[in-house]
Amino acid sequence: MNLAEGVQLVSLLLLSAMMLGAALGVVLLSNIVYSAFLLGGVFVSISGLYILLNAGFVAAAQVLIYVGAVNVLILFGIMLVNKQRDFTPIPNAWIGKLATGVVCLGLFALLGAMVLGTPWALSTEAAAGDAAIMLIGEHFFSDFLLPFELASILLLMALVGAIILARREFLPDEDLDQPADQVLTLPERPRELVSAGSTGNTADESGDR
Amino acid sequence: MDFANLGAQLNAGTILPEGVVILTLLVILVGDLIVGRTSSRWTPYVAIAGLVGSLTALFYQWDISDPIGFLGGFNSDALSIVFRGIIALSAAVTIPMAIRYIEQSGTSLAEFLVILLTATLGGMFLAGADELVMIFVSLETLSISSYLLTGYMKRDPRSNEAALKYLLIGAASSAIFLYGVSLLYGLSGGETNLNAIASNIVAQGSEPPIGLVIALVFVIAGIAFKIAAVPFHQWTPDVYEGSPTPVVAFLSVGSKAAGFALAIRLLVTAFPLVADEWRFVFTALAVLSMVLGNVVALAQTSMKRMLAYSSIGQAGFVMIGLIVGTDAGYASMVFYMLVYLFMNLGGFTCVILFSLRTGTDQISEYSGLYQKDPLLTLGLSVCLLSLGGIPPLAGFFGKLYLFWAGWQAGAYGLVLVGLVTSVISIYYYIRVVKMMVVKEPQEMSDAVKNYPEVRWTLPGMRPLQVSLVLAVVATSLAGILSNPLFTLANNSVTNTPLLQSSVAMTQDAGAPVQLADAEINQ
Predict the structure, then answer these.
(1) Is ipTM > 0.95 here?
(2) How far apart are CA B121 and CA A130, in angstroms?
(3) What is the pLDDT of residues B357-414, one digit of tens each?
(4) Domain ranges across chain A
(5) What's the pTM value of the predicted model, to 2 decimals?
(6) Shortest distance, CA B189 to any CA of chain A (angstroms)
(7) Chain A residue numbers touching B353 (CB-CB < 8 A)
């Protein structure tokens, strides 16, 4: 084993340990802010793995998108809604946790067996390395042109949708033919009579809820 | 790679119908931005015109000589054309019923139309997508716009709940689907084109690797979520109850049609090695959907929830055609989706009309409606009876064709389950009809007693009336005059090379299948 291979092995082990530790922390810690920061750690370690695999562009994209956008968004979400509240412990909660653990372990065993037992068709070509950017660009403008362009429509629509959800609505004045509590709601009355405005004759049979 | 000739190689004419839809949605978006709120006077009609234009473009693509576009990314064969047509048509029928509904709730119409058109676009691309990346991006376009539409009534807690549930379950199922798709990519040695995947996997040996089975299971989980097959249906009732009703109408027809198109193309093309396995899994899904959907629908008190469970059951019927995998099977699927479009959208039009006038969708509130609004009663009765499969309405012929195709191919058990459950379904459909028609005047519900005078002159009511009448006429006539639809469905299957090779393979394998000449009506 020469020096380069040794460095690679050590960094692989280091990154894997970092990733697994951080991932366990995300799941097991009860403070959600710690979990969110540790999630950033998971993403960074994954991008380190990409660098080891000679995929520099993917590593950069991973840091930019997952750490820079997704994780920051999660943190914003947590800090905007974070209300300190103590939940009463549920009796026998360990049964649920145990069941979840068993299911996850079973799934892991299944996927592990699948990964080991499948004859993967591995490519013999050398990794593209830094030329990957050019290859990706060529693909974007040849055989992946259509999904690439469709993604722009998807982003446009996501933009419109986000604005719709977040904007302050212009509520019509009271003198219109509908009371203000009906604006931006479904025309159907809710089954449980919670709103004060309705006259109250909805059949109170509850369905299968 | 030769970039100079790329323009010619792309064969971009194959996505002309989608291009028309994109143009329409940009016109609406920019027009609304410039004009402001008064744009709601013309935007719905622009949207309908755009969708009709897209349908016209689809019509002229029918006999296209080279259907493969974008270097294998998009396939505009007859099957995809017919499914894209169903999706575009369902959006075009949904828009007239949405105008009044959206106006009355005070939300803005143009953005609703833009998101609806994007969902349509995603569905149309999904129906023709022939490559994994394209499949995933178009699936997400359809899903994300559906989540936004579901949560459109943002001050209503039910709508919020529906959107959140749909988003969470949908994101989970997308992730599972993506994992399965990534396994396919790995198994085929780095191919994303469906045909290349299949040939690469077949070339590696006759024994299907275990990874392929796991990929199949994960992919089916994603598809079954989209078509709301039991046991991936838990989101359906809550989402249907909490969404704006026009959105429910689109989800139950357009989104489902896209899911079925994806199912046919992906399963038939990429999984020929495990064809028996996926047929088996879908048999289980179909039986569960038919039984659970139709039995639970019996206990519902809300019309939207009842239609939700009924749509689960209907999806179970359609799956019979997918499972048998003969010419007649696929053709009966297409035919049933066409018929289902009219009867289900007609039913939802009536439900919207009733809830706009009375503000409720409880089934018990429909009692005695006949005395106050005969047109609505007639429309709802025709559509529900057709959904139940009462002759001579369209739904009867659709079910007959499905069951006949199943019986021909030897799927006796499935057909028997289908027959029994459609008898059950007739009960809950007729219950509503009975509630409306045979109640005496003194048994009238309060909502019907206070029924407002029928005025079609209110803004947005005229399109609703037109779409109601159209759906009723189509539902009643498509049964008796169904020959053009039969021909369309059969041609779409016989003109699709993908299905022809798969049918031939099924027969070579010695399955008890007779190539059925699909001329059972008349």
Answers:
(1) no
(2) 36
(3) 998 889 999 998 998 899 999 999 999 999 999 988 999 999 999 999 999 999 999 9
(4) 168-209
(5) 0.92
(6) 5
(7) none
